[in-house]
């Protein structure tokens, strides 16, 4: 994936498929819990994103990410060799 928007769209599409919902209902700014993401879904999403981007996501960081936008930004920055952590 060449840019952050592509990563966001990929995560939205993956989540829509897993949740069996139209992609239009998956708001990248919405909190994961409001989207209906449980721990099993979050784990699936993390593994799929690692495979898609060929990066290793830190579960401790991922646990503090609450939206698709923040997860995508974290993962995309890792593909660029940049460290990114959410605000404390």
State the end-to-end distance. 28 Å
Question: Tell me, what's the shape?
Answer: globular
What is the number of strand segments?
0
| N-to-C series of helices and strands | HHHHH
Percent of residues in β-strands:
under 5%
The major sheet is characterized as: none
Average pLDDT number:
91
Q: What is the CA-based Rg, rounded?
A: 12 Å
Helical content (DSSP H or I, runs of 4+): 55-70%
Oligomeric state, counting identical vs distinct chains: single chain
SSE order and pairing:
Layout: H1 4-19, H2 32-35, H3 39-53, H4 59-62, H5 68-79
Helix pairs in contact: 1-3, 1-5
Which features does this protein show?
mainly alpha; 88 residues; globular
Describe this structure in words.
The protein is 58% helix and 0% strand. It has 88 residues and is mainly alpha-helical. α1 (4-19) packs across α3 (39-53) and α1 (4-19) crosses α5.
